[in-house]
Amino acid sequence: MAHSDEDSSKGTLDNRVICLGVTGSIAAYKSADLTSELRRQGAEVFVVMTRAAREFVGSSTFQTLSRNPVTEELWNEGDGWQPGHIELADKTDLLLVAPATAHSIAQFANGLAGDALTSIYLATTAKVMLAPAMNGKMYQHPATQDNLSKLRERDHLLVDPEEGELACGYEGVGRMASVDSIVAAVLAALA
Ligand SMILES: Cc1cc2nc3c(=O)[nH]c(=O)nc-3n(C[C@H](O)[C@H](O)[C@H](O)COP(=O)(O)O)c2cc1C
Known about the structure:
Layout: H1 5-8, E1 17-22, H2 30-40, E2 44-49, H3 59-66, H4 84-91, E3 94-100, H5 102-110, H6 116-123, E4 127-132, H7 136-140, H8 142-153, E5 157-158, E6 162-165, E7 171-175, H9 179-190
Parallel strand pairs: 1-2, 1-3, 3-4, 4-5
Antiparallel strand pairs: 6-7
The structure holds flavin mononucleotide.
């Protein structure tokens, strides 16, 4: 039998569809573990990667771990008549963006929809959760903080970044929350 134990186990997120947006942060590699953990909890995970995210991790990693096709571009996506990003926006229970870059947060805050992920954001009525990850100065910048305030006002859920040593060499707040913290937030949101 090619199936593992996890296939037969019942998870807390059974029958839940999660669209996992991965954006261009060094923390993108952690989303591979996040994908596995969400699946282990029973969720059906569809990963959407920005172009910058693919500079950090290959889409094959997410395709294999999620066991679903990965959405990379707005064009030529999906097999059916309906644009793939609209289909995904409609069927998802949660749009989770982890890591969420300063750039993507700014696009969400301002309704810019130039790629698959930002189009899904505008097209979905599902809950939205973001786990920001960036350099501490980028995170503290008034532009980023204003954008995050806008997202909070829309009742989006934010899994705050942690303080510590950052990949860019600085200390500060900006390291993406741990996979465990993000999964706990997802469980609380979808329970
Ligand atoms: C090595 C490297 C690491 C980066 N890490 C981050 C990061 O952690 N957070 C962030 O907001 N931007 C980071 N950036 C910048 C983003 O990749 C850049 O703003 C990009 O346009 C984001 O696009 P996206 O939001 O569409 O994925 C990094 C860039 C490089 C070259």
